[in-house]
Amino acid sequence: MKIATWNVNSIRIRLQQVIDWLIKNPVDVLCMQETKVADEHFPRSPFEQLGYHIYVSGQKSYNGVALLSLKALQDVTAGFNSILPDLPPEWNQQKRVITGVIDNIRILNLYVPNGEAVGSEKYKYKLQWLAVLRQYLQTLLASTTNICMSGDFNIALEDKDIHEKINTQDHIMASLPERQALRDILALGFADAFRKFTSEGGHYSWWDYRAASFRRNLGWRIDHHYLTPALYERAKSCTIDITPRKLPQPSDHAPVTVEF
Question: Coil, strand, or helix at residue 232?
Fold first, then answer.
């Protein structure tokens, strides 16, 4: 089984690129983030023609997550409130969470808030969001053994996940509180699939559109697959495909695929 995660940065703009990639890389499940489209306008037909079942949780112009699966998923839910019904409803306003089960594996597709700048209101929201995610996962883990938590986490957990050493206390996506919040989540029993196979730095999944960052390989590894122990043991590979990033008008992210 192959599960990929890809922040497509607008599915309607990047539709043909995603279709072409799936034809060459027919993964069992594709987790997409930043689809940026309301559910009723999601372009279903091209994916259905490839044999994919489609599950979406989107909104106009911002955020949005989707699952494409060659087999029908079970127990598909969106948002935190499906698992944590007592949360205030505003936690469901931004479409950032969707999950479903395939072959006894719960796939959790996440688009973690960016946070904008350290100390900003959006940064505070990001840290609160991550705390809610931890609570959500604690509830899931009470009844679920195999979880593949995938998506754009907007956090580089280690300095080697970034193109150069920076002041992590002051840089969004690398600040100490963000990293600690993610470590607190991983401490529930998750491990990084990519790091099972690749220990060195220099491997990235996101490059800013500015300053010729991709050409200069000034990237960040912020797109991840985190696995519970039994699933981690089953992982055979985890790779980043930079090919779509070379295309005209690409997403700023590359797809990352884990194979079991």
Answer: helix
